[in-house]
User: Which sequence fits this backbone?
């Protein structure tokens, strides 16, 4: 996939759009959408990195809200903790 196209994909991925949604917006071919879904392709690695960055940012914001007592944020943080613990057991 060309660098110019990857540059267009990045801001859309930051909005947490799916590969199919990004494909629809940019008029990507089925093969190009498949590249976004493939963790071994450059586009797929970019997409997953951006999703991980966005998840990190959302987790940080949620944990800050949990620290000040937001019940919803506390519940969400507890669920993330359980998921993380299960992933290492």
Assistant:
């Amino acid at each position: 996939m060309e660098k110019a196209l990857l540059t267009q994909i990045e801001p859309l991925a930051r909005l947490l759009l799916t590969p199919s949604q990004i494909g629809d917006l940019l008029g990507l071919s089925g093969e190009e959408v498949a590249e976004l879904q493939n963790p071994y392709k450059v586009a797929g690695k970019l997409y997953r990195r951006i999703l991980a960055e966005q998840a990190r940012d959302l987790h940080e914001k949620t944990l800050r809200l949990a620290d000040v007592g937001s019940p919803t944020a506390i519940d969400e943080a507890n669920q993330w903790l359980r998921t993380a613990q299960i992933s290492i057991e």
The CA atoms of residues 54 and 89 lie 25 Å apart. The chain has a mean pLDDT of 96. The two ends are 38 Å apart (CA to CA). The helical segments are 3-14, 19-26, 30-37, 42-67, 71-88.
